[in-house]
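Hi C.,

You asked whether I'd gotten around to modeling the 447-residue construct. I have! Everything is below, sequence then structure, no commentary in between.
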Amino acid sequence: MNHMLTLLQSVTPVPRDIPLALPLPEWLLVVLLVVSFLAHIIFVNLMLGGSLLTLWAQVKGLKNKEYDTLAYEIAKTITVNKSLAVVLGVAPLLSINVLYTVYFYSANALTGLMWIAIVPLVTAAFLLTYLHKYTWHKLEDNKGLHISILALAVLIFLFIPLIFLTNINLMLFPEKWGTIKGFMSALALPNVFPRYLHFLCASLAITGLFLFWYLGRNRYAFETHFKSITRYDIRKQLYSLALGVSVFQFVLGPLVLITLPAKGVQWNLIIVILCGATAALPAMYWMWKGITGKPEEIGMNFGKVIMAMTLTVLLMASGRHVYRSNALAPHKKLMAEKTKAFERLSAEARAHPAPDESTTAQASGTPAAPGAAVFQANCASCHKKEGRLVGPPVTEMVSIYQGNLPGLKKWIRQPGKKREGYPQMPGFPQLSEQELTILTDYILSVK
């Protein structure tokens, strides 16, 4: 694995694209990705949120038997939602593979064994939820063991989305690939945990609304299961949970936004996010009215709440794709240019094959050629000769470091942040002293 990571870090951060035609129009694949991901993530939310609320209710049920019954009723939904989450996860996984092949697989490789571990982790979590469900009555006298089974499943359910999120996040930042050394390194990117907390809050909000409906159905025989707790009591708690975490999202959302690298934050993203937040406001007002109003009217505006929150979730899912497109657009353009150049050179080479490869190599071996190769492999994704790409142009580097070769070397090894509006440059500790020397010689030779 270490050898594989070393190889990955030494190859160009601007790989050639795979020039294959898409199986469907790109816009249709984008729609499929957004809609199928939305369907998948809702059931992931319900699976995780249901597991968390079951665990909470079962622990509380140690003192109040009614909450143990509530835990049992919620637990019935977990395995169903889990199965739907898995089935509905196939379409977005295939869509993102087709649309972002190079980025997705690069992130997979860099997160290494942890990405591969998702399959056994999912299997273990599913088996634990079934074990918990079907031993409910058999372990009635051993609640500690029974709760521990669910607690272990919940820990795994909490960890699996973190792996996914870290991987999907990493694919957006090819400029970071040279500095990533496995999952823990990718996990340390600044916006991972704010986005993860945002996901957890969404899981609790969606599950609260789902259970508000599920336990509030007219055909659900609530009174046969519960004696001292009323239907209104439970629904009020669930509405309060959904409202509370939704309010907290308005605090967490700006934190998520400001920790995202600026390269993907553009006006189209801001507009989509603001529209999503605006759609959530009436839903929160209707929930508040239900909580504070008459008990018999608690569910009066539930349909409106669901419509408003559905619009919010759809807009937020669209915002996720907008950021992805914004963030990767410069890199995709550079990769397309490199692919075209490679295809052109390949065509020329096939049309005019060199009679003697060694002679050709010697003829092209000018002093700048090795440095140009190192620059292309490590710097070209962010810098070009003139004009800003991600970072400043090479000509600006020359104006700053002309006659200061050691200073340029030091900056490449351990860069800082010189100006606002530019992302933090990653360091390049993987470069040997010889590579660093020919790279800096090349940079300072640019006219």
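If it helps when you're writing up: Residues 1-12, 354-368 have pLDDT under 50 and may be disordered.

Thanks,
B.
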